[in-house]
Design a protein that fits this description.
single chain, Rossmann fold, Dehydroquinate synthase-like, alpha domain, six-stranded parallel beta sheet, binds nicotinamide-adenine-dinucleotide, binds fe (ii) ion
């Protein structure tokens, strides 16, 4: 099967690479930008230092910080109006996956008049947008290296998955020093998101020779360094490794696919507003157990790469040990079952199961899973995560 591999035209990686932003903008002849971020990061002062950096290089900046975690269509519309007012030549995103995704869609919406819901799905965006430069502050969603964006449709309460090469950042600047201020819980949630990207890219029916090495590297790095980054926020080696894992995981899944964990995680996020990485984490072990029979060798390889078993055990046993290892990882990262995180009781949760299962399947991701579930099986998996 032919494969297509998209990635940013340029990735700068390393401590201090953020100070190259103005140089990179000059290189592509940009002197007026919209800087997209969120209120929390703006309050922390990091955005001020970027504004000064850009002003020193005579680059005009308009800051748009009205992006909420799990960005909405309304956030994008307001950002688009700000962009049109300031007439920027490029969009710069500084933040986590939420900020980056909102910026991606703002940058293409300016060149495409359709309502945002028209971009949902695969390859639905007609025209290229403005150049996009992204600087992630979490490690991470990998959005800095993906052609995907996830925007909540507030009318339908659906997290719309958009996948199109026109959403790919032109330049990504991955400076792990920015991720060192992440609190422990955020480190844990986005770190598990990274791991799920690696695992799903590797077991996806659309995995390929370009994405496999990136997916395996992402899995190995996360297995070796996530717990250290969680326990020792100042550990530079662990932070650097997680930033690399996130970026590689992004490149892998955006050219392979995510599967059932992500398919099921988005409806939880849309209805109950749980952090994306957290809703992935609570599903990961149960979905892995369900999916093992569809790709026993691939799961066994993951298990060995993560150090859940050695090379002598059978593939079947390696798969079981992987599920145990994933449950263990959640426990060590302080990630509880769904019932302790949601503000609803079990019967309220169950009343949403049918819509959640339908929305999960409609997203297209579960169809790439090693075992493609029925709506009833999805509902049962949700019930297990409770
Ligand atoms: N496009 C993709 O390829 C892709 C992949 C995975 C997830 N996502 C999306 O990304 C979003 C989640 O992004 P996220 O997990 O990075 O979190 P986020 O962007 O939602 O940020 C969560 C919170 O952490 C704060 N924060 C960010 N960086 C920080 C730092 N360095 N120090 C302290 N606080 C910081 C933010 O201000 C925010 O309040 C979801 O909407 C998810 O659907 C997109
Ligand atoms: Fe994700």
């Amino acid at each position: 099967m032919e494969t297509i591999f998209d990635m940013p035209s340029r990735v700068l990686f390393g401590a201090g690479s953020r100070f190259r932003l103005s140089e990179e903008l000059r290189r592509i002849r940009v002197s007026r930008v919209l800087l997209v971020t969120d209120e929390h990061l703006r309050d922390k002062g990091i955005i001020r230092s970027f504004e000064e950096h850009l002003k020193d290089a005579a680059i005009d900046v308009t800051v748009f910080s009205d992006v909420q975690p799990d960005p909405t269509d309304q956030n994008v519309e307001t950002g688009l109006a700000t962009l049109q007012n300031c007439n920027a030549q490029a969009v710069v995103a500084i933040g986590g996956g939420s900020v980056i995704d909102a910026a991606k869609v703002i940058a293409v919406a300016v060149a495409n008049p359709e309502p945002l819901a028209a971009f949902q799905g695969y390859h639905k965006i007609m025209n290229s947008g403005l150049p996009l430069i992204v600087i992630p502050t979490t490690a991470g969603t990998g959005s800095e290296a993906t052609k995907a964006a996830v925007i909540t449709d507030t009318q339908r309460m659906v997290k719309m998955m958009m996948l199109d090469a026109k959403l790919m950042p032109r330049i990504s600047i991955v400076d792990y020093e920015l991720s060192m201020t992440m609190p422990a819980a955020l480190t844990a949630h986005v770190g598990v998101d990274t791991l799920v990207h690696g695992i799903e890219a590797y077991v996806s029916k659309r995995s390929n020779g370009m994405t496999d090495p990136l997916a395996i590297s992402c899995i190995q790095l996360t297995a070796r360094h996530l717990l250290t980054a969680y326990r020792e926020p100042e550990n530079r080696q662990a932070r650097e490794a997680m930033a690399l894992a996130a970026c590689q995981g992004g490149m892998a899944f955006s050219n392979s696919s995510v599967c059932l964990v992500h398919g099921m995680s988005r409806p939880i996020g849309a209805i109950f507003h749980l952090p994306h990485g957290f809703s992935n984490a609570v599903l990961l072990a149960a979905v892995t157990r369900f999916s093992l029979p569809g790709a026993p060798e691939r799961y066994a390889h993951i298990s060995r790469q993560m150090g859940c078993c050695d090379g002598r055990v059978s593939d079947e046993r390696a798969g079981e040990l992987l599920v145990e290892g994933l449950e263990n990882l959640n426990a060590q990262l302080g990630i509880p079952k769904l019932r302790s995180a949601l503000k609803v009781d079990q019967s309220q949760f169950e009343s949403h199961l049918r819509k959640m299962a339908d929305d999960a399947l409609a997203s297209g991701s579960p169809q790439n899973n090693p075992v493609v579930p029925t709506p009833d099986q999805i509902a049962e998996l949700y019930a297990r995560a409770w």
